[in-house]
Design goal:
The structure is a single chain. By secondary structure, this protein is an alpha/beta fold. About 50% of the residues lie in helices and about 15% in strands. The chain has 10 helices and 8 strands. Helix 3 crosses helix 5, helix 5 packs parallel to helix 9 and helix 8 packs across helix 9. The model has no long low-confidence stretch (mean pLDDT about 90). The structure holds 2'-deoxycytidine-5'-monophosphate (DC). The site of 2'-deoxycytidine-5'-monophosphate (DC) has 13 residues, from helix 3, helix 5 and helix 9.
Length: about 250
């Protein structure tokens, strides 16, 4: 493989309209990195966590008992969930209402693992997520999709697969700062860490698609990296996996 300048490498990757899967635990910086990467590639950004959060928000609004998987499964086809895939302004709507902020509240965060563990929910969400990837491909655009099971389940044929992680304290600090910016509320980092840990445990021990690292994913640990360094490391990993020479 010949050596390429960073710009040439980026435009070669862009021209491939790749599908890039970024999985990892909450607070690992996936959203920031996936959005930045989608922007660099002029592609679409798909936040799959937002689809599970939107479903959860709707269930809570409707008074569905999220501790009863059968009750959740019975209502799963009712809400219309849509994503805004522009990495500059990602958004999520339920029945045409913009719930981008509502889905980040503590109530939704506390319930989402339960809803995401219901097989019927996962089937519907995976279909929806794949439709966004298909749409990007049909329009000749790259797609950067972030979540937990993208590499293994949603897009097993993705051109690049990255597992982005960071240690719990770093993730909690990042998530607390994000939530404060979005919701205007200050949460103690220790409380956020506890919530993240509970969610990680629930997500990786559920029966339906437990969260695991895909065997063919490249692991990037962002604990000691700045945002710029992380974006660079993920871009580097993605370009190599997609077969684009590095500079
Ligand atoms: O990334 P996040 O915190 O917004 O994810 C919210 C929840 O959805 C979390 O409990 C994990 C779950 N999730 C999932 O099961 N599969 C995905 N592809 C994305 C998120």
């Amino acid at each position: 493989m010949s050596e390429l300048s960073p710009e040439a490498r980026l435009s070669e990757l862009r021209a491939m309209c790749p599908q890039i899967a970024i999985d990892g635990p909450s607070g690992s910086g996936k959203s920031t990195v996936a959005r930045a990467l989608a922007g660099l590639l002029h592609g679409d950004y798909v936040d799959t966590g937002a689809t599970y959060r939107a479903m959860t928000w709707w269930m809570l609004q409707c008074g569905v008992d999220v501790d009863q998987p059968d009750d959740v499964a019975a209502r799963v086809n009712e809400p219309i969930i849509e994503l805004g895939v522009d990495p500059q302004s990602p958004a999520v709507w339920v029945d045409a209402r913009d719930v981008s902020t509502d889905v980040r509240t503590a109530a939704v965060s506390a319930a989402v693992s339960k809803v995401a563990a219901v097989p019927a929910v996962r089937v519907r969400m995976v279909d929806l997520q794949r439709a966004y990837a298909e749409n990007a491909r049909n329009h000749g655009r790259a797609v950067v999709m972030e979540g937990r099971d993208i590499a293994e389940v949603v897009l097993p044929g993705a051109d690049a697969k990255v597992w982005l992680t960071a240690d719990l304290q770093a993730r909690a600090a990042r998530r607390a700062a994000q939530d404060e910016q979005l919701l205007g509320a200050q949460a103690a980092v220790a409380d956020v860490a506890q919530g993240l840990q509970q969610r990680d445990t629930a997500d990786s021990s559920r029966a339906a698609t437990p969260v695991t690292i895909a065997a063919d994913a490249v692991v990037v640990d962002a604990t000691h990296l700045s945002v710029e360094q992380t974006v660079h490391a993920v871009l580097d990993a993605a370009a190599k996996q997609a077969g684009v020479a590095d500079a």
